[in-house]
User: Fold this.
Amino acid sequence: MDAYSLSDLWSILVMQGFSGLSLFSVLLLMALGLAIIFGQMGVINMAHGEFMTIGAYTIYSFSKLTETYFPTLMPYYFIVAILGAFLIAFVVGYLVEYTLIRHLYKRPLDTLLATWGLSLIMQQLFRSAFGAREVSATLPDWLMGSWKPTPDIDIPLNGIFVMVMSILVTGAVVLFLFRSNWGLKVRATTQNRVMAGAVGINTKKIDRVTFAIGCGIAGVAGACFTTIASTGPTSGSLYIVDTFLVVVFGGSASLFGTVASAFSIAQAQSVLTFFLTNAMGKVVTLMTIITILMMRPEGLFRSKVRR
Amino acid sequence: MSNHLFSVSELDSGYGQSKVIHKLNLGIEKKEIVAIMGRNGMGKTTLFKTLMGIIPSMGGRIAVDGVQLDNLETYQRVERGLAYVPQGRMIFSNMTVLENIQTGLPASARGIVPEELYALFPVLFDMRARKGGNLSGGQQQQLAIARALATNPKVLLLDEPTEGIQPSIIKDIAKSLKEIRSLRDLTIVVSEQVLSFTMDIADRFFVIDKGRLLYEDVRANVNEKTINQYLSI
Assistant:
């Protein structure tokens, strides 16, 4: 570290901090969906990463279609494609809940195995449809290049875009959960399913829509993912462990905990992997999380109410 | 029995192979408050859960205002006029008082909390922004009743509403239930072990023992001694 001047260290810190913010944004987008599905509904969805891949492949497909048939629309396709990514992941999630998940509520081990099997099936479907090699969407010009606030600091525009998206989606999820009638029903159902039914809430419908929304958000995460990396059939599975880590570490019932957890894990990994190796950075992050979870098993944020 | 607002006929219920409720019949009039008495483990809570569809019945019929409920899901029974205050209150502890009450509104097709609920339970208005889990036991019971009333029911089922509540609050709850009955022409069914509470509010008494109806009579013919002989072990 002696080789770095103070100015170098500052630039490194800013850029690694920004790299951490980009990772934070992707983790947060992934974790928000899982925070709803696992944190709120208690469903261990091992196929959550594949819903992200659905979003990524949707962007790729939109990009190819626009490039081939409507090249003049290339600067705008991405926005429409994000909505498409949400909708397709939402619809697939809805069908998965209806055909598979709803039969497995209160059977966490069976859910874990079934969704793991589902993730393998989905990966094979991606392989059959798009090939085994990684693919990349053609990004519009406004997502390329970087912003240079000083000569030494280079901040990529796609990273800024992912951050803006994560802020928008987080805001939308918060508004949905805490300012809408649907959100009220979702929170009631996740807190006490039996009692929610006994106040007139159709809990099965809530489950289906909630699961689908969680999957839709994963689709948006996948859409953002395409701006920073290429997409392969197993891209989603690379993020699933980190995503569960974020939700569990944050406190599975707390949305704010998910945000705080995604931020701390992403920043820790980003800064540590620069000064240590990639593997050691992960090891130190994991050890810290395990230690904290041993002291606070409910995660960073737990509810403080009489039960 | 079909003339009753709330009728239960030949109801069987239980858990798995074990039958808890045996061929139970109840007929309850509009605006009537009835008390279902019985010792612990005699099937009162199982009966209420079966009426709400939380536990599937093994046979028999349940009807509110002539509408058969036995094949409906819990939320559909609420839409057709049944409301439930469970034993232990089961309020949504992480949600505010206002949100707890609002959970019942969609079933009633009303958008806002009726003023009369706050008039019945003023403490809930004062504490509407507080989390339900941070209320005292008595306040939680009032919230659970307000939440059930928000669904605009025809029949209100209360399972052991005085459990763990201090005597002064029990009197308030009794007063509120009588007010609600007059205000809304509501039929109220209370399961209880505390005799003084039911003697104060009930028009009719049912005693169940091992899931079977053992005794039934109107308040005028009932005194504490009559009921106590069925409740003593």
